[in-house]
Amino acid sequence: MIKFFAMIARMKYINRWSLMRNEHSENLCEHSFDVASTAHALAVIGNRRFGKNYNAERCALLGLYHDAPETLTGDLPTPVKYYSEQVRAAYNTVEEYAAESLISMLPDDIKEDYVPLLKKQADDKELWKIVKAADKISALVKCVEEVKSGSAEFRTAAESTREAIRGMNMPEADFFLSEVLPAYELTLDELKNR
Residue 141 and residue 180: Cα distance in Å, rounded? Predict the structure, then answer.
């Protein structure tokens, strides 16, 4: 019996932003889709606008699975995860163990296709930077949407996340902030109007 896919399907039960009052709860499955589609967009933007040579499809796959170990660990809130180097190192160990546990749920002939999605490979170093930027952009979009819905709870998180993205010094991410992110503040009618 192969249990991996049933475990991955449980991403929809892992809620994010547990320390904050949410107008709309966000689960790990929703977040992973957002990261995957944003990572793909960042790679395409990098390729078309900034002369990069990213594998956009690979970025999307890495984004899709980037938080898969959290099906076993749950989502540790950012202030806790980054509290200190010791906490971050311990959590990295737990995430690695969770990734190994997920991989162990696959038969040997399929494992090799999933190991590079669940464990960072040196060949994907540049792509993981794109995924990290997409992860932060996804968090920023969540903050923008929450503030738009009237939740002041997310204002500070929005600003610190925006600054973290700018601090990554990635032209693709900067382009997204200036040219794409403002559309997330529009209403449905405003989005539909040309």
Answer: 10
